[in-house]
Design a protein that fits this description.
By secondary structure, the chain is an alpha+beta fold. The protein is built from 6 helices and 7 strands. It is 39% helix and 23% strand.
C-alpha cells in the first residue's frame, strides 16, 4: 500500500489556496451527504469544511476524540495515469450510527454497541464506499480528471488507532499533510460521519487551477 501512497513534500499554501481546498471539500461533502441521506432515510447536513496543513504526528488528534469507537472506510487512489498517487479519503462513522444505518440497509443490527457483526460490517463498508465515491466523483467533475479509487478497506477501532495509518504513510515522504475535512450531521445535530480528504500535490494543483486560484 505504501508504494501507491507516494505523498510528496508540499509547500505551505496561501490562505486563498486553503479557501479553494475548503470549497472543494464542501462540494465533495455535499455529494457524500446526499448519498448518506438516501441510505439513512433522513436529511443530512454538512458543517463548515476546514482545510489545514498539519504536522503528520498531529493527524490522529485533528478530527475528533482519539478514544471514540468508529467504523471507517478508507480508499486510496491510483491517480490519473495509474502510476500511483498519494490521495487518501476516509469516511468515518460513529459506531452506534453505523449499526443503525446497517439496520436501515436491511442488515442485522448488533445489540451490545461494542462491535459490528459480519453483515453490519458489510453494510458499513457499502455505506462508506458509496459516500467516498460520491465525494470523489464531485472532485473529478471539478478538476476534469477521473479519480479512480481502490477497493474500500473497512476498519472498526478507536479513531486514534485508525488515523495512525495516514500518519505512517504520509510520514514516509513528508513531515506535513494538507487535510480537508467536513462533518456530516442529522437534522437534530447528531453527528453522522466525517469525510477526510488528504490530496497529494498534483491533485491540489488541479483543484487550484480549476477554481482559478493558480495558473495551470
Amino acid at each position: 500500500m505504501s508504494r501507491v501512497l507516494k505523498v510528496r513534500s508540499i509547500r505551505g499554501p496561501s490562505e486563498l489556496e486553503l479557501d479553494a481546498m475548503r470549497e472543494t471539500g464542501n462540494i465533495g461533502a455535499a455529494y457524500a451527504a446526499t448519498a448518506l441521506a438516501k441510505m439513512a432515510g433522513e436529511p443530512v447536513t454538512i458543517g463548515v469544511t476546514d482545510a489545514r496543513v498539519i504536522p503528520v504526528e498531529d493527524l490522529p488528534g485533528s478530527f475528533g476524540e482519539l478514544s471514540e469507537m468508529v467504523a471507517a472506510v478508507y480508499m486510496s487512489q491510483v491517480g490519473f495515469d495509474r502510476t500511483g498517487c498519494g490521495n487518501m479519503l476516509f469516511a468515518i462513522f460513529p459506531l452506534e450510527d453505523s449499526q443503525s444505518l446497517a439496520a436501515n440497509l436491511g442488515r442485522k443490527k448488533t445489540g451490545d454497541g461494542a462491535a459490528l457483526d459480519q453483515s453490519a460490517q458489510a453494510a458499513a463498508s457499502e455505506m462508506g464506499a458509496i459516500c467516498a465515491c460520491a465525494y470523489l466523483n464531485a472532485v473529478s467533475r471539478l478538476i476534469g480528471r477521473p479519480l479512480m479509487p481502490s477497493p474500500p478497506c473497512l476498519a472498526v477501532d478507536l479513531l486514534g488507532a485508525i488515523l495512525q495509518m495516514p500518519t505512517i504513510l504520509v510520514g514516509e515522504h513528508s513531515s506535513r499533510a494538507l487535510a480537508v475535512w467536513t462533518v456530516m450531521a442529522a437534522a437534530d445535530g447528531r453527528k453522522l460521519g466525517t469525510m477526510i480528504f488528504i490530496p497529494e500535490p498534483a491533485t491540489q494543483g488541479l483543484v487550484l487551477s480549476a477554481l482559478g486560484v493558480r495558473k495551470s
